[in-house]
Amino acid sequence: RSTSASSTSRLARLTEPPAVDGEKAWHVILLVLTLFGVASLTIVLLGPLVLDPPPPSLVRAKPLLLGVALAAVLGLILEWKVIH
Length: 84
Fold this sequence. Notes:
- Helix 2 runs antiparallel to helix 3 (56-83).
- By secondary structure, the chain is an all-alpha fold.
- It has helices at residues 2-15, 22-50, 56-83.
């Protein structure tokens, strides 16, 4: 019975959601923001080179994509200057 009880408690620990504190959440948000920022810059910079002429949707989305990239840069600056 003690083996069954220890197996049950071990299973309960494995199925519990991990505790997420504020710092971990911030780092996940920063990682996602940075990845989206890099993807946005890639689309803005390489899109016109690959697509001739660029589609109207890319031209319309350019300010949004640049805004995401700027937010990523600001998030990284905030991380290095304020958080750490």
